[in-house]
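lol forgot to send this yesterday, sorry. struct tokens for the thing we talked abt
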């Protein structure tokens, strides 16, 4: 397998467990229950991408208001104001009353700043607006085709209900992505503990272990040398 230049994730420890970072122009499914840090990981990916690697990024939110995302970023040491002014980051809130415009909304904003990184937060939230599962699956396929066509390295967030063993809500998300990362929040004795695993990463060696991670004032930090205790 030829090695290629990797897309550095900007999340401490994540490059190590993914075999060097994401594969450029690939889609990564980031899945986990609410509160596991999916939004935090994804904002770190865009922030570091724009700041350190000069790769502009687009954040599409379906659910959480932009101001709420940005203010929790400030709590994690990431102020996007300057990057937005420089045209290196765009936050877009999806308008549920214009579902059919979603592809255009994504494409226009990517082209506006020549974005190399994209986050869709979350594709599960499509279920709030579209009732037909077949229609949602079609939309997820179309979004993934679009992101591939525009050569972006992207994170698709999928939020799964607690206690569910499936990787995604609609059972299709893991098939349109070559890479799947799962965030867990599980009980170990009398405490809850956070752990992360790289479920699949096509064409790359990667860790197959569960690694502990923390959500800190600097965002998510993964411990690649440690193994999580899971029962
Ligand atoms: N400064 C902080 N220090 C520690 N944990 C934090 C901090 N800020 C947020 N959190 C944790 O991060 C979680 C939210 O992360 P978020 O990325 O929004 O999760 P998700 O998008 O998966 O729902 C909260 O449940 C909270 O426990
Ligand atoms: Mg979130």
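and heres what i got for the seq, position by position
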């Amino acid at each position: 397998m030829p090695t290629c230049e990797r897309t550095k994730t900007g999340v401490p420890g994540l490059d190590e467990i993914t075999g060097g970072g994401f594969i450029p122009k690939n889609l990564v499914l980031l899945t986990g229950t609410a509160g596991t840090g999916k939004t935090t990981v994804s904002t770190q990916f865009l922030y570091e991408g724009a700041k350190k690697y000069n790769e502009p990024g687009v954040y599409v939110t379906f659910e959480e208001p932009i101001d709420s995302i940005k203010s929790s970023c400030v709590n994690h040491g990431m102020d996007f104001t300057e990057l937005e002014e420089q045209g290196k980051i765009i936050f877009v809130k999806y308008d549920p009353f214009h579902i059919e415009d979603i592809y255009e909304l994504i494409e226009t904003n990517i082209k506006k700043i020549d974005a190399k990184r994209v986050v869709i937060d979350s594709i599960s939230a499509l279920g709030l607006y579209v009732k037909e599962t077949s229609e949602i699956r079609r939309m997820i396929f179309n979004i993934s085709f679009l992101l591939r066509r525009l050569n972006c390295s992207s994170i698709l967030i999928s939020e799964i209900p607690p206690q569910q063993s499936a990787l995604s809500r609609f059972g299709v998300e893991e098939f349109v992505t070559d890479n799947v990362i799962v965030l867990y929040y599980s009980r170990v004795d009398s405490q809850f503990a956070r752990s992360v695993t790289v479920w699949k990463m096509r064409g790359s060696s990667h860790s197959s272990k569960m690694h502990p991670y923390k959500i800190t004032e600097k965002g998510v930090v993964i411990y690649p040398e440690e193994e999580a205790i899971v029962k």
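Residues 23-183 form a domain with the Rossmann fold fold (CATH 3.40.50.300). anyway ping me if u want another try
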